């Protein structure tokens, strides 16, 4: 999808207003943070992920770390009610 935009001054900054069709096509939203990368072909704009996947979160865990005391106590509690 091709579109044009104009670089404008916004206060002490410079802004680039993206057409709504590009925002919709890319799945961008107003207020969203994006990453910018200068390439030999131009400017690459990518959505910056704010949420990690389960695999990424699990990769940060240390499987050799000791279990916290409160979780150890919870694991040793006897079953109650229909948990048996």
From TrEMBL:
| Highest taxon in the source lineage | Bacteria
* Molecular-function GO terms, alphabetical: DNA binding
Q: Where is the SpoVT-AbrB domain?
A: 8-53
Q: What species does this protein belong to?
A: Duganella vulcania
Locate the region Disordered.
61-84
Gene3D superfamilies in the record: 2.10.260.10
Protein name per the record: ChpB-ChpS toxin-antitoxin system antitoxin
